[in-house]
Amino acid sequence: MRRFRWVVLIACLAAAPHAAMAEKRVALVFAAQDYETIRPLANPRNDARLIERALEKLGFEVSSESDRDLRRMRRALENFVDDAEGADVAFVYFAGHGVEIGGHNHLLPVDADATSLDRLKETSLPLEEVRAAVAAAARSVLIVLDACRNDPFGAARLAPDGRGAVSLAPEVEKSARPGLGRVGRAENTLFAFSAAPGETAADGAGENSPFAAALAGFLDTDGLEIRSVLTLVQQQVYDETGGRQLPYVESGLPSLFFASRSGDLPEREALLLAMADITAGMRAEVEMIAAAGDMPLAPLYGALISADLKALSAQDRTAKLEEAAAAYGKARADLRTLSASDPEVARLRSEAEAQMGLGAFDRARAILAEAVSIDAESADALAEKLVSRRVSEAASLKAAAGVSLAQLDYAAALDAYEKAAALHMRIENEAVPDADRRARTWLLADLGDLQAQLGSTTAALDAYRRMEASARLRLTQGEGGDDAVRDLGLAMLRVSDVLRAQGDIAGAEALLDENLKMRGAQRARMEGNADWLTSVANITERIGDIRRQRQDLDGALSYYDATLSFREWLVEHYANRPENRDGLLSILGRIGSVRYDKADFAGAAAIWARRLEEARRFAADFPGDVPASIRLFDALLSVGDAALAEGDGNRALAAYDEAAAGARALIARDGRQVRLHYALAQSLKGAGWAHLARRDRPAAYAAFDEARAVMDGLTAQDPRNVQWRLYRARIMSDIGTARYQAGEYDKAIAVLERSVEDLGALAAGPAADRDIRLALMRALLDLGRSRRLIDDNAKARDAYAGAAGIGRQLDLVSSEDSALRSSFEAALYNLGVLCEMLGDTEVAAAAFSELAALVRDRDARQPGPDTGRRLLDLTVKIARLSADPRPHYEAALELAERLEAASELGEYDATPAQLREQLARLP
């Protein structure tokens, strides 16, 4: 329920700093509240009085009119124009309803009649009439419109006080638009709307509308001319309404000051001015993240501007804004839950929270610094209060760190955390209440988490070790009980994660085993406790990850199966918690992957099918939730991949098509979610391979081309996004591979060369990782094969050599990465065969020898059924190319004899008899 309000402000530019005091300033303030036949309003008279007081403080002579009919409105306007003759500044303020009729704006007096369109025109005051009348009496005009787009007519028919219109003509409903339309630029005139044309303005939950409150609050801002003042009003209203209302200004005025021309802007006002320069796209990002986090807009804008996130890619900026939102929520919760024995400290913390909500991070930190100072001075002066004051001082510092994190000021946050931790260290040996010891534990957790986020694992490990020691101390002193055990377990999880990241797998596993034993001892009294089960599941899942990392797939499965039982119980009893559903989907994905690695394709497919079923339920229970939908798409992709591995193109296509359809539906609702576009590209890429499995090449090419087009759009929007660029290059490689398999070698080469170029640029950059190098190796292999088939052997050799060079850089001799190793081995084999054909025996022999070393290493760690035959083939090739072939033929003979004895010699393998004959012919 809101009306339109308009403000006409006629002003002239002061010629010198002292001229403002000599200006003649007059104002007319209207309020229309008690409408006779249309929707009445609640706040116009309050708003008029507020604006009247603000104008009087600025030296205006103010005349006020309330609830006037059209005749008295016009008379008041005529009298005002007469009085305003020769005035430098004239201000006319109206609070009431307004409509747009046929492209013209009309103000509604209290006797406006909407029973017909003609009657509405006759009983309303055209805005242009007001502008023209006032402009004739003054040199400059400012018109501010606080316009409502809520229907002033429709609900009036149901108004309980009977003041609504009994009937409303259809022509009025069709032709009269509630609120006001856009106005054009006029010389020496400024138009300002309280909301964008076509949008809604709020009446306000209190005594005043957000717009009137902001206008009254900022009119006397020192150092700003009127357009900047209105920018402050605009952004204040936008922030206060959570982005639902954004005032709009159209100015034809020169610079104009109402207050002093000098003065420094407070932090809040400086932020509001900076917010005005943010693009509509970025505003949408901020609004979406703020709404998801149930937080005000200003803190996110503060983080966006102070951390210069505007320069980041869309994906990176979103991640940073989500991080800032989470930090704000945590800091707000900390400030609300912190207790303080000193009421002044409590008051300061409350004020700091309010300032943080306004985006005034520096002011919030300064206020918390006052609280820290109070506690520090008291602790130094009164020894008996030392412990409580040090704890309170540390709590304020921790809150200050949270404020800094909400601004993404990591250095300031780290400094505050370290100071707070140092204060706790000073009282470590004092008698400290258990609650304060627990606060120390979690302060160290926050410090370690920030160090880990900043990439300093050594510093993070130190903080986590201190966290662990603090939790152990609580236990040894018999304090905290199960609560202390839980905190110690969480500390041990953090330590083990860092140890694993640093390569200390044994240390991580030992700590996880100790953690599991400690939490297992609680089983009898913790049965059915969700937090306990979650903690145990997190431990067993990590142990399974380590076993899998060590290629102990059976051991990994045993721990994953235990984890699955915990996750299933949590979902059964707490299905309304998304994190439980997410945990179940995650462990099912792990189990499916291990079964796939064990070549148990049927088992993997069954697990992935169940994961898909769970993902469907998850998405159905949280309709429209993007993370839940992404999980569903991911599950569908896994089912499609498993079906492809089994050669079932039809089942694979059904899964990929369902994922694509779901992604398209969500994109149609909110196309800003880049994750949905990426999911669509993944689905289309999979569908391309499914079509190939079904021998439908035209459909495959169409799917690949659409996937590439989607990624073209994402990379154009975010050209620095490595993930997008890599996936686009992979799709190009897939297209090239498909063309190669179809015998379309020229087309394959053209596409693969572009893919190699893009992947090469990524591999040469700082973001080069395993996935980029693997994709480049595979693209080079396919490029080499295609070139060889058109007899372009020189360039084919270059492609194979490039792929082999990447493998050498990665030092894959002892690698467990089967995908990288197989690509490296293929590159070496193709390079050796081609070089042998070209007569480059030295390079060929080196490639085969390097490949043989890889095969022997793999056989020593994980024997395979065909390893012996492969080594025999390579050894014979090396002997044929060697200047001294005898030792190689002798090694080949030994291998052949062993294979023959085991009945493993193949039809086309060199036999012992052939090798003996070859040795006999050697000199």
Account of the protein in words:
The protein has 923 residues and is an alpha/beta fold. Helices cover 66% and strands 6% of the residues. It is built from 37 helices and 11 strands. The protein has a 7-stranded mixed β-sheet, with helices on both faces. It has a 4-stranded antiparallel β-sheet with strand order 7-6-5-9. A hairpin with a 2-residue loop joins strand 5 (97-101) and strand 6 (104-108). Mean pLDDT is 84; it is low at 1-6, 9-21 and 155-168.
Write the layout of secondary structure elements.
Layout: E1 5-10, E2 25-31, H1 44-57, E3 61-66, H2 70-84, E4 89-95, E5 97-101, E6 104-108, H3 117-122, E7 125-126, H4 127-135, E8 141-146, H5 170-175, E9 176-178, E10 189-193, H6 210-218, H7 226-240, E11 248-251, H8 267-275, H9 280-293, H10 298-306, H11 314-337, H12 343-357, H13 361-381, H14 386-406, H15 410-426, H16 434-453, H17 457-476, H18 482-501, H19 505-520, H20 523-526, H21 530-549, H22 553-573, H23 578-597, H24 601-621, H25 626-645, H26 649-669, H27 674-693, H28 697-717, H29 722-741, H30 745-763, H31 770-789, H32 793-810, H33 818-838, H34 841-861, H35 867-881, H36 886-901, H37 912-921
Parallel strand pairs: 2-3, 2-4, 8-10
Antiparallel strand pairs: 1-4, 1-8, 5-6, 5-9, 6-7, 10-11
Helix pairs in contact: 1-6, 6-7, 7-8, 8-10, 9-11, 10-11, 11-12, 11-14, 12-13, 13-14, 14-15, 15-16, 16-17, 16-18, 17-18, 18-19, 18-21, 19-21, 21-22, 22-23, 23-24, 23-25, 24-25, 25-26, 25-27, 26-27, 27-28, 27-29, 28-29, 29-30, 29-31, 30-31, 31-32, 31-33, 32-33, 33-34, 34-35, 35-36, 36-37
